[in-house]
């Protein structure tokens, strides 16, 4: 029975990891747009987490930074516990250049 719970815990952790990465990727896509901001990226990540995370990813934390050249998004949270006493954390990270129009 314990082995089955460990397999389920691993599956839940993998799913939570994908949710965190998806939220970070969507936050980056929004934050790096030419007329966007770090706040808009963070809002996009929060929306993604609200729609996807449910109880699988608890206490998520979102951090989005944008400078003149680069944007970075980081999402982390705690995985829903299936095996008592096993507290797992997952995170997603995405980074890329800020979009800019240049004259040719």
From TrEMBL:
Q: Which UniProt keywords apply?
A: Signal
The protein's name is Pilus assembly protein
* Organism encoding this protein: Streptomyces triticagri
At the top level of its lineage, which domain of life is listed? Bacteria
Instruction: Specify the signal sequence span.
Output: 1-16
């Amino acid at each position: 029975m314990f082995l089955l719970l460990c397999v389920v815990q691993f599956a839940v952790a993998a799913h939570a990891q994908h949710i965190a990465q998806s939220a970070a990727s969507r936050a980056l896509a929004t934050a790096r747009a030419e007329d966007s901001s770090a706040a808009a990226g963070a809002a996009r990540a929060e929306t993604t987490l609200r729609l996807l995370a449910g109880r699988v990813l608890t206490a998520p934390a979102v951090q989005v930074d944008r400078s003149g050249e680069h944007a970075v998004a980081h999402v982390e949270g705690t995985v829903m516990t299936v095996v008592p006493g096993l507290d797992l954390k997952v995170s997603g990270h995405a980074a890329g250049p800020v979009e800019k129009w240049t004259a040719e």
